[in-house]
């Protein structure tokens, strides 16, 4: 995000003496059709709230001419944002739906697009959503004048994604269906790359054991030290929600670790676990999207038959 901050704080950009920029700004503020202008990011554009700028360029980079069209189209990506599939998802999507308002278009870098696609496309494909052509990374190039990725994982950093999950309804349900072990329990011991869970209770539907004995869960499948801030607590009585899958060696590897919560969406997800049919979850999501007249895939492509 440093690139955006630098552009916003540039003295050249803010200088009223710059004749070219003054003329450009005048054009952007005019009411002539098809002329870019600056508008405030509306409160109901939920996808792009809490960005480091408050005004967007209209028409946007996806050729939406009105704020209503932008809001309707962007709404279909809110669930993807809540899946937490990549930390730069919002940055990438909002660079297209609500681009920062400057005197020229600032496109996302190809590296930003590819990073988000790599993180999110597998999660989308599980539910029958292909990566849409309108977001094709071939449309963008890398360079100095594009929005670069902020949270790309460096090769030397351990992949502790389980400890960086968000407790949104969508992310909890998605991870529930992708995990073979889902438990509520206390953390018994914490090692550099694994934890032991005690007094755990299974939340998987039809699991007759219910009570789960002390179980070792690896924090990553890389075998390296994996710091996990979620587990940095001296309160041994606090409970956590852990979801994990078995690797090729039969070890449990965590997909998600979050503190047990009383928040509304968290409780909704927990209650939904008992009646959740993971085999039809993708169908339900697709049918729900089809019932919405502004669904993004209706603008760009047809989904495969159910």
Characterise the protein shown here.
The protein has 306 residues and is an alpha+beta fold. The chain has 2 domains: 2-139, Frizzled cysteine-rich domain; 161-275, Beta Barrel (OB fold (Dihydrolipoamide Acetyltransferase, E2P)), CATH 2.40.50. It contains 11 helices and 8 strands. The strands form 2 sheets. Strands 3-4-6-8-7 form a 5-stranded mixed barrel. The protein has a two-stranded antiparallel sheet with strand order 1-2. A hairpin with an 8-residue loop joins strand 4 (194-202) and strand 5 (211-212). Helix 8 packs parallel to helix 9. The relative contact order is 0.12. GO terms for molecular function: Wnt-protein binding. Residues 33-149 form the FZ domain.
Structure at a glance:
With 306 residues, this protein is an alpha+beta fold.
Round the Cα radius of gyration to an integer and report it. 22 Å
How are the strands of the biggest sheet laid out side by side? 3-4-6-8-7
Order of helical and strand elements: HHHEEHHHHHEEEEEEHHH
At the first level of CATH, the class of the largest domain is Mainly Alpha
The percent range for helix content is 25-40%
Tell me, briefly, the overall form: elongated
GO molecular function: Wnt-protein binding
Domain NTR: 160-278
GO biological process, one term: non-canonical Wnt signaling pathway
Subcellular location: Secreted
């Amino acid at each position: 995000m440093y690139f955006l901050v630098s552009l916003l704080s540039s003295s050249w950009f803010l200088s009223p003496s710059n004749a070219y920029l003054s003329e450009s700004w005048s054009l952007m503020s005019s009411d002539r059709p098809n002329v870019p202008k600056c508008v405030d990011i509306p409160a109901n554009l939920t996808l792009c709230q809490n960005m480091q700028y408050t005004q967007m360029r209209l028409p946007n980079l996806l050729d939406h001419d009105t704020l209503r069209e932008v809001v309707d189209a962007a709404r279909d990506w809110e669930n993807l944002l809540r899946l937490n599939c990549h930390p730069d998802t919002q940055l990438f999507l909002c660079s297209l739906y609500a681009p920062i308002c400057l005197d020229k278009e600032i496109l996302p870098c190809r590296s930003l697009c590819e990073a988000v696609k790599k993180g999110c496309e597998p999660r989308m494909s599980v539910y029958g959503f292909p990566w849409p052509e309108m977001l094709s990374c071939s449309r963008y190039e890398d360079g100095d004048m594009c929005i670069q990725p902020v949270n790309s994982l460096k090769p030397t950093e351990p992949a502790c994604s389980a400890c960086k999950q968000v407790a949104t309804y969508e992310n909890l349900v998605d991870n529930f269906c992708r995990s073979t072990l889902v438990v509520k329990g206390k953390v018994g011991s914490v090692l550099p790359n694994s934890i032991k869970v005690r007094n755990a209770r299974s939340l998987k539907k039809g699991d007759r054991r219910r009570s789960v004995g002390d179980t070792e869960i690896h924090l990553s499948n890389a075998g390296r030290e994996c710091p996990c801030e979620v587990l940095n607590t001296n309160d041994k009585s606090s409970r956590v929600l852990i979801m994990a899958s078995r690797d090729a060696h039969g070890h449990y590897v965590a997909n998600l670790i979050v503190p047990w919560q009383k928040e509304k969406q968290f409780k909704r997800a927990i209650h939904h676990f008992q009646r959740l049919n993971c085999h039809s979850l993708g169908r339900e999501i697709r049918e729900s999207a089809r019932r919405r007249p502004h669904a993004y895939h209706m603008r760009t492509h047809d989904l495969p038959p159910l």
